[in-house]
Design brief:
The structure holds two protein chains of two kinds. Chain A is mainly alpha-helical. Chain A has 21 helices and no strands. Chain A has two domains: 258 residues, no CATH class; 257 residues, no CATH class. In chain A, helix 1 packs antiparallel against helix 4 and helix 4 runs antiparallel to helix 9. In chain B, helix 2 packs parallel to helix 4. The chains are: A mainly alpha, B alpha/beta. The interface between A and B is large, with 34 and 41 residues. Chain B: GO terms for molecular function: ATP binding; ATP hydrolysis activity.
């Protein structure tokens, strides 16, 4: 019990913040949906919007019956929230089990006379308590709402479903912690499972939901909370009990620090022989997650292209702002600009990593004693600039690809593959420019690079509201996109593309020159 | 081989280093001592090119470092606060530094890892300060650099490892390398350095060989005796005379020691111990002299 209390005390702030954030996210949505889609017609419209392959892949199959506010909430939130609840449980479980064992904390506990059975059962109990709290807060919170369709039984299944899902991944991580020999490995495998189950059901939900039953996410879909309320689909979660017994046995039977699968100790030494390779290893998670994230964003943008006309048609302010333009094409060109700016964000982060190398003093250590042609300030600058630019442009191309894939089956859209490709080239010029701004500012100083973030944010909002509110062109003077043509509904302005691109490169060159000469932090 | 000529660095109005001048001869160990914040690291970071001097010149092997940027290939540097890449193992970091230096002696690498008792298989984010320092020190020794610069290298090391480090410094010196050793621990510098420079508030206040600087250090003597030796108190080479449970404590000017010993012969001593001079004593002495 003492060990359990200690774990609780250690986790209370971290888990409280997570629980507040997660439950807050769930609880914030019903009133928003209630306000946004107040009539049955609007809700039917929403149902049509999500009833296509891309949206099914993202949030699961559309449940039968009325698409009430409550059903909409359950359908659109449950799987997403499950993903986050799973992540939360994995982090906590790995932190108190395998990671604590890695750092020798568990050994201390053992040496203090606390038995292995107590250790493993206390850890399991943490998972139960945390997810019980999740259940209580969600169930209690949802029950406070007086929104049509939010039935008590639906609330129960929503809260119970997420709590069970969290507990499942908590216990699964505990089991994996016995199999693998490091916290990093355990986290990696657990997180992969969490994502693979999600992606697996994305594919099978579109193809044939019968296969989806292998994924825990689908169990939640099948409950059809607030609709059919099939409580039976909570039964598969019984597998948790099996995993509890398994993690208990596996832990009792092995030595502390030992594992059933051995990979780590004889880890092969990676041959990191150049700065670009080192930088890639340090930033690959950042780069890959942005690429995936923006591809998914592209898919979700693309999936609404079909409904753009009707969405805009209903909104007087937008109708007015657009004038005689083709609404869909106009909106798509705005989405291109916004996506291009979002795609530039990883580049700013990658340049920020260079400044972190500077601030930690690693840069000057790397520079001294090493061969200039292999590693100099110039090498480091160029590496980050190239990676940043490559990541930004690839992220943009993936976003556009996502839009294209998700909108392929929209009939009345007059945008061809060629249009997409040429638009990608057109807006990439703006990305080169934005990354150039970041490189220039990073070259000047770490503090100055914050301005690059302000710049991107400003351009983002200027373009966003520029379309919605018809703001003066003067506010758009700083935006490179202002000078590029609005593809796909205009044709490409080749000189503009060239000039903007060249300016971007010139700024990067100036940044490099300054960076090579200046004082380091 | 390295010469600083009136090197000055201002950060805004703060004068971090002022008119710093000293020269390192090939093959010597040069001690650079001063309290924290005196300007040691600023000076060193100007030498490696991380900071540009506001005034003054730095020359390496006769050439101005502003003209020939390649000089830095000949200098290996270990900062006082070592940061490593958390996701790499210690050995991966060492290998990376070797690769970027084209240094291929892996036997030497294994010897140093063994000698410093480093577990190179662990990720750097799990390392303590001492272990991070070991990685950086090993990397610095594994190079063809002519000049090794260590900025407070032993602060995180335990006494055993400190000794290993001292042995390696001596070994490097025997191999013909030049070493710049910055420290706030006088005894360490005394043990290793041929010459020293003392820096305070951004200015070099003394420099020269240790022998030349003897006059500025005082040794502390602790004397146990049944006799009353308070008469010594009034000799002009005796300072800070105090009496405590373990005996009399007094500081003696190094250049007056023979005289002091002559007086000691007059008494029956039970025990006589000495404590090495400390940096703060030097400064105290220096300021007394300046007044």
């Amino acid at each position: 019990m003492m060990y359990f209390k200690m774990l609780m005390k250690n986790l209370r702030l971290k888990s409280a913040l997570w629980i507040i954030a997660l439950c807050g996210l769930s609880l914030a949505v019903p009133p928003v949906f209630d306000g946004l889609y107040s009539t049955a017609g609007e809700r039917e419209g929403m149902k049509m919007t999500v009833d296509n392959a891309a949206m099914t892949a993202m949030i699961g199959p559309v449940p039968d019956g009325d698409y009430t506010t409550a059903v909409m909430f359950g359908h659109q939130m449950l799987l997403f929230m499950a993903l986050f609840h799973g992540l939360f449980s994995i982090l906590i479980a790995n932190g108190i089990a395998r990671k604590a064992e890695d750092t020798g904390l568990t050994e201390y506990v053992l040496s203090a006379g606390i038995g292995k059975k107590t250790i493993v059962s206390s850890q399991l109990m943490i998972g139960a308590v945390i997810n019980l709290l999740v259940f209580i807060i969600l169930f209690g919170g949802l029950s406070l709402y007086n929104i049509d369709g939010l039935s008590l039984i639906g609330n129960l299944y929503y809260a119970l479903g997420l709590a069970m899902f969290g507990l499942l991944f908590f216990v699964m991580t505990m089991v994996l912690g016995n199999l693998f020999d490091s916290g990093d490995m355990t986290f990696g495998v657990s997180l992969s499972l969490l994502l693979v189950f999600y992606l697996y059901r994305a594919v099978t939900d579109v193809a044939d939901t019968a296969y989806s039953a292998a994924s825990p996410y689908h169990w939640l879909s099948r409950i059809e909370v607030y609709g059919a309320n099939n409580g039976l689909w909570l039964l598969p979660f019984i597998v948790i009990l099996l995993l509890v017994v398994l993690s208990y046995m596996l832990f009792i039977k092995r030595d502390l620090g030992d594992s059933y699968i051995k990979t780590g100790k004889e880890k092969r030494l990676r041959n990191i022989n150049s700065y670009p390779k080192l930088a890639f290893i340090n930033m690959r998670v950042l780069i890959i997650s942005w690429l995936i994230g923006l591809f998914i964003a592209g898919l979700s943008y693309g999936s609404v292209f079909g409904d753009l006309e009707s969405l805009i048609g209903e909104n007087d302010m937008l109708r007015e702002a657009l004038g005689s333009n083709n609404a869909a094409e106009f909106f798509i060109s705005m989405l291109f600009v916004i996506s291009a700016l979002l795609s530039a964000a990883p580049a700013l982060m990658i340049n920020g990593r260079m400044l972190a190398e500077e601030k930690t003093g690693r840069l000057e250590v790397m520079n001294s004693g090493t061969l200039n042609r292999k590693l100099s300030r110039g090498t480091v600058f160029a590496t980050h600039y190239m990676y940043g630019l490559a990541a930004a442009v690839s992220a943009f191309v993936l976003t556009v690809l996502g839009m294209y894939l998700a909108s392929m089956n929209v009939d009345d859209l007059s945008i061809t593959v060629n249009d997409y490709l040429l638009s990608a080239v057109n807006y990439s010029a703006g990305i080169v420019f934005t990354v150039g701004v970041s490189a220039l500012f990073a070259g000047i100083s770490k503090k100055f690079h914050i301005t690059a973030w302000l710049y991107v944010t400003y351009v983002f909002f200027a373009n966003y509201f520029g379309v919605l509110l018809n703001i003066d062109d003067i506010y758009l003077m700083l935006s490179p996109f202002h000078y590029l043509s609005e593809m796909p509904h205009e044709s490409m302005d080749i000189p503009a593309v060239l000039i903007i691109t060249v300016l971007g490169f010139v700024m990067a060159l100036i940044g490099a020159a300054v960076f090579k000469r200046r004082n380091l932090l | 081989m390295l010469e600083l000529k009136n090197v000055t660095k201002y950060f805004g109005k703060v004068r971090a280093a002022e008119n710093i001048s000293f020269a390192l001869n090939k093959g010597e160990v040069f001690g650079f001592i001063g309290p924290n914040g005196a300007g040691k690291s600023t000076t060193i970071r100007m030498i490696i090119g991380a900071l540009k001097p506001t005034h003054g010149e730095i020359e390496y092997a006769g050439g101005n470092i502003k003209k020939d940027k390649k000089y830095i290939e000949n200098i290996a540097y270990v900062p006082g606060d070592v940061n490593l890449w958390g996701n790499l193992t210690g050995e991966e970091v060492i290998n990376f530094m070797m690769k970027t230096r084209k240094f291929k002696n892996t036997d030497e690498k294994l010897r140093l890892i063994e000698k410093f008792k480093l577990d190179g298989r662990k990720k750097c984010k799990t390392y303590s300060k001492g272990n991070r320092q070991k990685v950086a020190l090993i990397s610095a020794f594994l190079s063809d650099a002519e000049l090794l610069i260590f900025d407070e290298p032993t602060t995180g090391l335990d006494p055993l490892m400190e000794r290993v480090f001292h042995e390696e410094v001596i070994k490097a010196k025997e191999a013909g390398k030049t070493i710049l050793l910055s420290s706030h621990i006088l005894s360490e510098v005394e043990k290793l350095a041929d010459r020293i420079a003392i820096i305070r508030d951004g200015k070099i206040i003394e420099s020269g060989s240790l022998k030349e600087l003897r006059h500025i250090t005082r040794m502390e003597y602790i004397i146990e005796t049944a006799d009353d030796i308070t008469a010594l108190k009034h000799r002009d080479f005796v300072h800070e005379f105090t009496e405590s449970d373990d005996g009399y404590h007094l500081f003696i000017d190094n250049d007056r020691v023979p005289e002091f010993l002559k007086y000691l012969k007059l008494y029956n001593l039970k025990n006589l111990t000495t404590a090495p001079p400390r940096l703060e004593d030097i400064f105290m002495r220096y300021y007394e002299g300046a007044e």
